[in-house]
């Protein structure tokens, strides 16, 4: 397909690629997801975060961490999550049909089950501080630093 851009320049777009699995679909945000349950979990996780009074959508670390923890607990397998301010391309290996990308609140989120299971209690770990009775999280010494997990796919 071709379309004219500024200055009459024609841009050619290749035909849309087939979805990776028969179960895959384009979700309401326009991205590919292969597991409806994962799609719903990601949307619900972000909506839950939005309800927190101190939540700010610029805190992509918190979004990625919460997505990862919720997915790992729900599916009982290891997940990688990426959250960005702009859209990004990805080339990943994922387990089964557990891969989904969404866009909510102008944040682009990808979650996928790792090809080999690396799940253990340390990966899913976080600790609540004594003063965080309202479900806020404290990251630091003695907690899993999800920065490594979030960025490991980019290396």
TrEMBL record:
Signal peptide: none annotated. It comes from the Eukaryota. Residues 31-112 form the Ground-like domain. Pfam families: Ground-like. InterPro entries: Ground-like_dom (IPR007284). Coiled coil: none annotated. Transmembrane segments: none annotated. This is Ground-like domain-containing protein. It comes from Pristionchus entomophagus.
């Amino acid at each position: 397909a071709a379309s004219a851009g500024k200055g009459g320049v024609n841009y050619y777009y290749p035909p849309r690629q087939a979805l990776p699995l028969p179960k895959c679909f384009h979700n309401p945000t326009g991205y590919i997801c292969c597991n409806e349950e994962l799609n719903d979990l990601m949307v619900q996780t972000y909506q839950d975060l939005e309800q927190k009074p101190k939540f700010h959508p610029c805190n992509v670390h918190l979004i990625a961490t919460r997505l990862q923890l919720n997915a790992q607990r729900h599916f009982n397998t290891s997940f990688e999550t990426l959250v960005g301010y702009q859209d990004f391309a990805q080339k990943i290996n994922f387990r089964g049909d557990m891969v989904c990308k969404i866009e909510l609140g102008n944040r682009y989120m990808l979650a996928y089950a790792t090809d080999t299971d690396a799940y253990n209690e340390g990966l899913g770990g976080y600790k609540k501080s004594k003063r965080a009775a309202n479900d806020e999280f404290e990251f630091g010494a003695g907690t899993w630093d999800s920065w490594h997990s979030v960025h490991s796919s980019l290396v």
